[in-house]
Write a structure and sequence with these properties.
The structure holds 2 protein chains of 2 kinds. By secondary structure, chain A is an alpha/beta fold. Chain A has 12 helices and 10 strands. In chain A, the strands form 2 sheets. A 6-stranded mixed β-sheet of chain A has the order 6-7-8-3-9-10, with helices on both faces. A 4-stranded antiparallel β-sheet of chain A has the order 2-1-4-5, with helices on one face. In chain A, a hairpin with a 2-residue loop joins strand 1 and strand 2. The longest helix of chain A is centred in the middle third of the chain and has 21 residues. Chain B has a domain of 219 residues. The longest helix of chain B is centred in the C-terminal third of the chain and has 26 residues. Chain B is 69% helix and 2% strand. Chain B has a two-stranded antiparallel ribbon with strand order 1-2. Classes of the chains: A alpha/beta, B mainly alpha. The interface between A and B is large, with 45 and 30 residues.
Chain lengths: 282, 323
């Protein structure tokens, strides 16, 4: 697998054969704290890439930076060959890079169907001058509804389509958010902790959905804590710790990497801490 | 007693009630549908009233005067919105309430006597409007209402505008545009992540609701003089009361809310006054009634918020999910 994705050896910041997203020297500081300090990273096209790391590693901040929801102190990145640094978040989405949120953002007092319709791009009726005249947007609206119905069926939310999004369970909201993001017909989808707070039964169907995205030719980048899931579905794993990328590689190899074990368990997890306590007993 | 009831019913269709309904429809666009905290709807009404009066007094026709006041309203929206709409919603609230007061102080300075009439305000600007009156002179009356031809004309125009504004807002809200607007009310970032320019939509909503407020200002001053004292913060808060009374995220709510508000004020005024006159109510004087009726309205509003927080026309279901 590794030789299919990476150009050379799998190491932090290694070049990919076919990268879709390339980031350079992305730094984000909060006061004295450097949350993100990524020298170079490439995300492979058409693959499922997992971004893992312990709490506070800067994964979500990095996500926010890439999608324009936060501004870096320095750095630049390109998506599909287009420079994306400094581009407003809504324009990032229009270019085909769509994200979801760690804390699910279902639009509570809109119905599930309205949530879905909102995702469709280039709607004529969203122009305030055209909104008054239904004849302008009626046709497109039925296409939008049809697309939404297909996705809702696929995500098994079709029975809920006329309910307020607020009435959905946490897991269903995650599904809705993913389905809504797909309404934008993205080339790359970025999922921030898609499995957080989802019960095991739904987790499996979420995993299947993510795998389906890859089959459709989409690039997936997702943040996750659960190593088991990561191993299960990802083609490539990028490990962050303290804002930096410390390891990269196919999931099975990355898990054995000492840098990853250090990042998750601390550098001294296998040294004998007992040797110090002898001093104390003297 | 008949007189008290007749007065109260008269309030149902006064141009004042219509003006408040229009302003509240504008505020419903801002707050109810987009989630914008506009505490300066009085500023939009002031701009409408003054721009219309000044333009007609300068010899311009009705239509140019209305267009000028709409343009002024849009400029006000841009001034208020450009610095604040990128920030958290409370900043708009602070800026709008301050702007409304600043405008009121500006138009009432004596230095501007020649332009705005200073503390005296402006009058005599509505002649052209009444010259268009198609109703022949005379007394008109039906059911509990009676009025002269001028009163009939201004009521017909005012309520036609209310109906048009309500239909317009209803159509906008049921369109894909309205969907984006309501999405912004629920969560800006989610809407942003779906490729919508949230800032631009908030500005559009601010402008549309503001223009409705401006129209309300014009209707408000048609039957009376423009007086700076009318456009204080109290006006803004009455409009908020009306909006919450009727239901913030509804189109009919602001209209019915305005009717209820003015009928209740008139009823409490009439009843208290009659009570004092006949000696039944002994612990207050006639000149205290004005204040006490607002206390009663406040009490009513408190009860409403406690027992029917969605407003009279609001959807109860929407409240199950608060939080």
């Amino acid at each position: 697998m590794a030789d299919q994705i990476a150009k050379g050896k799998a190491e932090p910041g290694c070049a990919k054969l076919d990268p879709i997203l390339i980031a350079d020297n992305v730094v984000r500081q909060f006061g004295g704290l450097t949350a993100v300090d990524v020298a170079h990273v490439e995300i492979p096209r058409g693959q499922i890439t997992a971004l893992i790391g312990p709490n506070g590693a800067g994964k979500t901040t990095f996500f926010n930076l890439l999608t324009g929801f936060d501004k870096p102190n320095s750095g630049s990145w390109t998506f599909n060959g287009k420079k994306l640094s400094g581009v407003a978040s809504y324009k990032v989405a229009r270019l085909g890079m769509v994200r979801t949120f760690q804390l699910t953002k279902a639009l509570s007092l809109l119905t599930v169907m309205e949530n879905m319709r909102l995702g469709y791009q280039n709607q004529k009726g969203e122009n305030p001058l055209a909104a008054m005249f239904k004849s302008i947007w009626r046709k497109q609206e039925s296409v939008v509804t049809e697309t939404a119905n297909e996705l809702l069926t696929r995500f098994k939310l079709d029975a809920k389509k006329d309910d307020f999004a607020a009435s959905l369970s946490g897991g269903q909201r995650k599904l809705l958010e993913m389905a809504r993001a797909l309404m934008t017909k993205p080339t790359m989808i970025m999922l921030d902790e898609p499995m957080a707070g989802v019960n095991p039964a739904l987790t499996q169907s979420l995993l299947d959905h993510i795998k389906d995205l890859k089959k459709e030719g989409m690039t997936v980048l997702f943040v996750e804590h659960d190593m088991h899931m990561v191993r299960h579905i990802s083609d490539w794993v990028i490990v962050m710790a303290e804002g930096k990328i410390v390891a990269e590689g196919p999931p099975k190899e990355v898990m054995k990497n000492p840098a990853v074990i250090d990042a998750y368990l601390g550098a001294h997890h296998d040294s004998d801490l007992g040797s110090n306590s002898k001093k104390g007993s003297k | 007693m008949d007189q008290i009831l007749a007065n109260a019913l008269g309030e149902l269709i006064t141009p004042m009630t219509a003006a408040y309904a229009l302003a509240a429809i504008g505020l419903a666009m801002h707050f109810g549908f987009t989630g914008l905290l506009n505490f300066g709807q009085a500023a939009y009404m002031l701009v409408g009233a003054y721009a219309f009066a000044m333009a007609t007094l300068a010899g311009l026709g009705l239509v140019p005067a209305i267009l000028i006041s709409f343009a002024a309203s849009i400029v006000l929206s841009l001034i208020l919105g450009i610095p604040t709409l990128r920030l958290r919603s409370d900043y708009l609230a602070i800026v709008t309430i301050a702007a409304a007061e600043i405008l009121r102080f500006i138009v009432s300075t004596t230095g501007l006597n020649d332009v705005t009439g200073g503390p005296q305000g402006l009058s005599g600007f509505a002649r052209e409007f009444y010259a268009l009156n198609p109703f022949p002179a005379g007394e008109y009356g039906f059911w509990a209402w009676s009025m002269d031809e001028k009163g009939l004309w201004v009521r017909v125009v005012a309520w036609s505008l209310v109906i048009l504004a309500a239909l317009f807002v209803a159509k906008m809200i049921r369109s894909p545009w309205g969907r984006v607007i309501k999405g912004i009310r629920e969560d800006e970032d989610a809407v942003r992540s779906l490729g919508k320019n949230v800032y631009s939509y908030k500005m559009q909503s601010l402008i549309i609701g503001g223009v409705l407020g401006t129209l309300a200002g014009i209707v408000f001053v048609l039957p009376r003089a423009v007086q700076p004292g009318n456009f204080g913060t109290g006006l803004t808060f009455f409009i908020w009361t009306i909006l919450l009374l009727g239901g913030a995220a509804t189109v009919l709510g602001p209209i019915i809310g305005s009717m209820i508000f003015w009928v209740l004020l008139s009823l409490t005024d009439g009843l208290l006054s009659a009570g004092v006159d006949s000696g039944i109510i002994t612990f207050i004087q006639q000149d205290q009634i004005g204040g006490i009726r607002f206390m009663l309205v406040g009490l009513g509003l408190m009860l409403l918020v406690i027992f029917r927080p969605q407003g009279i026309f609001g959807n109860k279901k929407e409240l199950y999910f608060n939080g």
